[in-house]
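Most newcomers find our protein records easier to grasp once they have seen one. Each record describes a single protein and holds just a pair of labelled lines. A learned vocabulary of local backbone shapes supplies the integers on the structure line. Nothing more is needed to start thinking about how sequence determines fold. The record below serves as our worked example for the rest of this section.
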Amino acid sequence: MVIGQDISTPWSASAYLNVDTVGIAAMIIVEFYDTKGVRIGYKETHKTSRGLELIKVENVVPPAGTETVCLSFRVHGGGHIAMICPMLNQGTTAAAYISDITTNADLEHAYSAILQTQDQITLRVEKNGIINAINVTPEKIKISGNKLHITADTYIDNEIVKNSMIENLSADKLTAGTINADIIQVIHLNANNITTGTINGSNLSINLNTGNVEFQKGRIHSSDNAIDININSKYMSVADKDNRILISGGEIQMIQPQFFDRQTSPYVRISNAQAGASWGGATFWGRDYFVVTNGANDGSIFSSPLGEEKFAGISGGHSTSGWQVTKIGGAERGVIISGGREYNNGYISYSPFIRVGDPGHAGTGLHGKNITVMADYIYLNSPHSTSHGANAYLAPDGALVPSNSAAKYKTDIVRTFETQLGDKLLEVPVAHWKDKEEVLTKTLDPDAKTPETYFGMIADDLDDAGLNELVEYDDKGSVRGIQYDRVALALIPLIRNYRDRITELETEVKEMKEV
């Protein structure tokens, strides 16, 4: 449409787009062209979904230099699409669709006429069966039509307005007088116009100024009771098809979705009821099986770990496969149990702890393969005993490992009956002493046990004698202790030598007697 460079009025357009399939998108576009036919401006609306939909492009202002405005329909990516009822009009909004008149039948039902006689004037417009007319006679003026729109100031003399003349009355036109609510029935009330004060009822009070809502009785609930606030029964609940969360009587329960009151054996209970050593503490109670975990480690809850542990949290109770042990898991990161008064290990002070999954022996890491126990003392109390020889070794770094003697655990074996170790060992003195820690404890506490006198050998003496194989050293090479189980073994070759010599002497003496 050629608009002759009129850019004072915006343009709008609309069309029904029916999409069956489309590669990228279908669209309608309002375009503007200059006198040379070059597009200098446009605005478009896209549709990518299937089905029939009214699409609009509104309030498009022509740029300077516009000669022609155009409604364009385009498809990107191909498809099977229909455009129905295209409409292009001046204005900020898209106008209602008006069909083209192309047949004689349409012409017969779409026309306008002005009829004037000596006693009346009639103005008439008809289209698509809709007739609007104004008839002026000496007796009256009659306006007939589908809609009447009056934009000018309108005055009615004699202040005569009958009931039948008022279809809708706006309350903002009432500026004086009294409205008796006893004889007024309000069908539609716009709550936007209630801005202050208090709405009171026998069981409900809503204060618009303070925001306070107070109930005496009643119930707020959805039609399916999935959301339910019952003032009378004093509970709140939210449900789905499998479970209902009920807040009532100072506790939270998870129960079957059709229940609306507290149960004696719910799925889950959170309350301050008695449990364990508590008469009024926080209680988290599960009827059958419980799990406390996180989203990244909520699987692989087995009583015995298979492969690397994946579960992190605590679980236990009666599962679908029967009673289960109570399990504390730390996934591949490990678990730490800590508590008690702090103690000093000679370098740092901390409370005793057990760390499962420690990479070293200091109890400070994650993702390890070890179990570290750090404490002032470790007590193992058992009513049982055995006659087996000691078969465990406590390494200088605290590692507890089996002590094995079979050849399959050894390499570079050299068997010998040498007596050098035994000879050196006979030159090392034995000693008597008191333990420093026992003496210090007695000094600090007079009621403590009197220090004992111990007998044995001093590791430093063995080290000085060159008996390194009988001495135990720490990871820095310092003397730590004596391998007492080896001391006696060092004497065996020497005893064997003495045995052989005695046997030889006994043989010589016997021969001399026979002579």
User: Anything to note?
Assistant: Residues 273 and 434 are 56 Å apart (CA to CA).
